[in-house]
Amino acid sequence: MNRLEQFTLRMFRHGDSVAIVIFGRRGTGKTDNSLLLCEILYSYGLVTEFATNIRVYESPFPIEYVTNMEDLEIWAQGSTKRKLFILDEAGKAFKRRSPMSKLNLKIIDNLQTLRKFKLSLALIAPDEKYIDSAGLGSDVLDGIITKPEFKNPKKALYHDLQIFEQEAFDNLPRTKIHFDTWDIATFTLKSDKPKTPFSDKELIILEKYGSGTRRADMPYHHEEVTRTLRKFAKLYIEYRRHKDLHDATEVITSKDMARFLGN
Question: Is the domain of 168 the same as that of 225?
Answer without folding.
Answer: no
